[in-house]
Amino acid sequence: MTRRSLLIVSALASAASALWPLPTSLSTGESFLRLASDFSIDHSSISNPPQDLLDAITRTLGFLQTDQLGVLTVDRGASNASAVKAAPEISSLKLSFDTGHSGTVTSISDEAIDDLESRVEGYSLTLPADGSAATIQANSTLGLFRGLTTFGQLWYYVDNITYAVEAPVEITDSPVYPYRGFMLDTARNFFPVSDILRTLDAMSWVKINTFHWHMVDSQSFPIEVPEFPLISANGAYGPTFVYSTADVQNIITYAAARGIDVLPEVDTPGHTAIISESYPEHVACPQATPWATYANEPPAGQLRFASADTTNFTASLLSSISARFPGKYFSTGGDEINTECYTALNASGQTFEQALDTFTGATHGVLQSSGKTTVVWEEMVLDFNLTSLRNDTIVMVWISSEDAAAVASAGFRLVQAPSNYFYLDCGGGGWVGDFPSGNSWCDPFKTWSNAYTFDPIANMTAEQAAFVIGGEQLLWTEQSHASNLDPIVWPRAAASAEIFWSGPGDVDTALPRLHDVAFRMAQRGVGAIPLQPMWCALRPFVCDLLA
Amino acid sequence: MTRRSLLIVSALASAASALWPLPTSLSTGESFLRLASDFSIDHSSISNPPQDLLDAITRTLGFLQTDQLGVLTVDRGASNASAVKAAPEISSLKLSFDTGHSGTVTSISDEAIDDLESRVEGYSLTLPADGSAATIQANSTLGLFRGLTTFGQLWYYVDNITYAVEAPVEITDSPVYPYRGFMLDTARNFFPVSDILRTLDAMSWVKINTFHWHMVDSQSFPIEVPEFPLISANGAYGPTFVYSTADVQNIITYAAARGIDVLPEVDTPGHTAIISESYPEHVACPQATPWATYANEPPAGQLRFASADTTNFTASLLSSISARFPGKYFSTGGDEINTECYTALNASGQTFEQALDTFTGATHGVLQSSGKTTVVWEEMVLDFNLTSLRNDTIVMVWISSEDAAAVASAGFRLVQAPSNYFYLDCGGGGWVGDFPSGNSWCDPFKTWSNAYTFDPIANMTAEQAAFVIGGEQLLWTEQSHASNLDPIVWPRAAASAEIFWSGPGDVDTALPRLHDVAFRMAQRGVGAIPLQPMWCALRPFVCDLLA
């Protein structure tokens, strides 16, 4: 893993160059440039362009028409209008592969689900000031797509004119980390497919490349599994709260076309109580009371992981589900396994750790045999000595950012998902009933700026740091559903998107650019919240603490 | 002020009788009752029914058709279906005035803006189990409307049938407190009229009767004032961020028809920096730096309240604005007046308190001479000795619930709006820039249950308690606009709606009913959040802390 320092170029304070995430290298001028009414994106140099690239071009052209975003200054650009009208006009953006390209054209969708280490997301972009054609070059179709995303952030609107504010622009760009994710829990509360698709769009706009889909949990099992039809029939919140096989395929396809791999998670052996509604023989202590003794959340219940039958059932279930996902990664969870539930009901004579080791070996084995790399939460490495856990397993650090070094020392690649920086639900108060004094266990609220100060390799040696493959912000949904998805997630989840694309940034100067992200998302139909009064958003740094 | 204890009737645990706010007296049976397909609301006994009552009848009939809410049980009522099909059918609801009615029929809109102490909101309601006509009786049109609101909460849906679950129902009901409000700040960020109208609808569903409209503040002045056209031209965030005179009238009319009085607030003399954009001569220390020395929030700037010219200007401005509001109450604010800004720039020779007393007397005087009762924040009573403050002024307690007793002891009627229970924005993290460690000043987040434990007369003598006229939850909008209005407000703001209609309730048993509020709001297009995983919402009390 290489680590590069950020090139933060002068123009930030003008709130004009508002790219997010910041490119590896960016140079800008001071000229306006008008977008011609017949502006087009030229892909003629790409033989047999894949359909998803053509679709991305169409979407980009659409945003150039519909974003209609005024610059974030007090007059929203009105004072630019006369100069903009006199500015040179640009008619074309030319896409091409550069000399490093293999010659075989593959789709965004195929490249998006390649091995993390094999993905090629870099590109270079030029926007000349004189009106000659802009260019994006890359070694991959995915790289061209990332460049198009950047291109779409360069434009503002005044008096019916779309214009760039800082031509000429020259960019060379590629991500620091290969994994940049967002996690959504669709089990505590359900999200319609349309909400997930809109979220995928927003993710792609800030170059997030992994949708970590925490599909199921103790409260509901909303995924249709054709081989186990009862599991959603009895485990979803109702017939309209199920992701059908077609829905899942739709989500996978939509994501991939936007450069996003879907990382499915079926959390085992804990967080599985709802399976007792369809397969009671495989679940220990279902709805046992008091729930707090047997689980971290109601209802209690976890897979009987000491049972060979249950192990076989689980392996079969995971195999069925994973077969529908073309990506190379699959998470089996492994967090918060309850000892009381095991102790109270285990009759196998194995220790907890022995049983878990056997279970993990078997369930991971079936996934690995079909070509998957397994992903687990941190307890599987830090709390147990599981000889069956292959060392290519990817580990998600969630309990605390303090735990990452230990995971790395154990020799596992890791994703930074620490609750103390990246949990988007924290600060919303306790949700357990009859507990009026209850606050969030992970108080306080994680503001964008708190998240943005996260250092992916804090307190790590260079050797440990090499195991960090990226990170993600996460939404657990005990108190969220479609009505508050956008405002809880955006623009906050852009914080980690930049950290893991660009490397850690400067929290003192990032806010004006993040306002731009929020305002542009709003123009595109994503309900990002305002981070400040608009008075502040239009006056960079004037509302800073010591201003 | 009378205070009555709540009658909490047995059926709560079934999650079926889900009225919110709880009626004064409620008795329910155990029978299902079907709504006939030709169900109608009979107003024939009311001569010359006002149009707003007819409109309310139409809306109620609409909700009976479109709510289509399944009961909040695991099967959403499927197991009720066969019994429901065999249940008696009800065809009519008869509205009538009872014997106490004056005989003169007035509109909801007129009654809604009467003196707080004169409003008559009580009603009685019967829903017989045998299919004979239901009844609502009241001494006022406003009371009939409150009864219709209750009637609309009695119905669920299964298999294309709308049905009540606990017939017969008998209710007598009237509010404990006359003031039950919700405050929205439209100055830190702007809200389109449509969002305010939707909020008014949701307020009316839980019998909130006052929209406290914090219209303007230091960051923007979004109200068109025809006599002072520059004030919004220069002070709004832009031409599309202005409430025109027609918009204001629309909001007032829409609110009144739903039993809601609009309490406008023009905060003075602090929180007025933006007026410097149009009338710089009246604003001291505009955008002075560091802002934190001269104001609690950026930008600094407040009215030169020691100046006779500024006092006259302010009186004229308040008079112009207040003339557009038909209600009897008008808030002049008065919170967070900055001493440094006064000291640095005052040249009048008066003390701060003398100047404020003169300013208050003059500005309140012009409002009072046009028939308004003035409303102020607590500092105007607790921090200063203002001889000009008439003792019919209503005082809003906001800094802390601890301050209410002192306001009452000073002899002022008061509204409970304490930040430590009722501020909906708390817990969202700091919004000031370059302050990544910043949390909300009023952390933690105020959950519904925290708000619901508020006791309006805690630590008060009976004499002090008599000054409490009600309360409200409040949304300050530094980090809110249309995208997160509904989820921040609903269903949380229903907590105070019940406290001040029904009196303090039982936080241990309220949650299932509040889930019902949230689910029904969602059916009606208001983006209320889920308070728990749906698994819990469908299983009353099972997710309680000690369950």
TrEMBL record, chains A, B:
Enzyme nomenclature, EC number: 3.2.1.52
Any one GO molecular-function label of the UniProt entry: beta-N-acetylhexosaminidase activity
Matches recorded under Gene3D superfamilies: Chitobiase/beta-hexosaminidase domain 2-like, Glycosidases
Alphabetic keyword roster: Glycoprotein, Glycosidase, Hydrolase, Signal
Domain (Glycoside hydrolase family 20 catalytic): residue spans on this chain: 177-503
Enzyme class: hydrolase
GO CC entries: membrane
Catalytic activity: Hydrolysis of terminal non-reducing N-acetyl-D-hexosamine residues in N-acetyl-beta-D-hexosaminides
BP-aspect Gene Ontology terms: carbohydrate metabolic process; glycosaminoglycan metabolic process
Annotated ranges, domain Beta-hexosaminidase eukaryotic type N-terminal: 19-154
Keyword Signal: yes
UniProt entry tagged with the keyword Glycoprotein: yes
Active site residues according to the UniProt entry: 336 (proton donor)
Signal sequence extent: 1-18
Family that this chain belongs to: Belongs to the glycosyl hydrolase 20 family.
Protein name, entry field: Beta-hexosaminidase
Species this chain originates from: Gymnopus androsaceus JB14
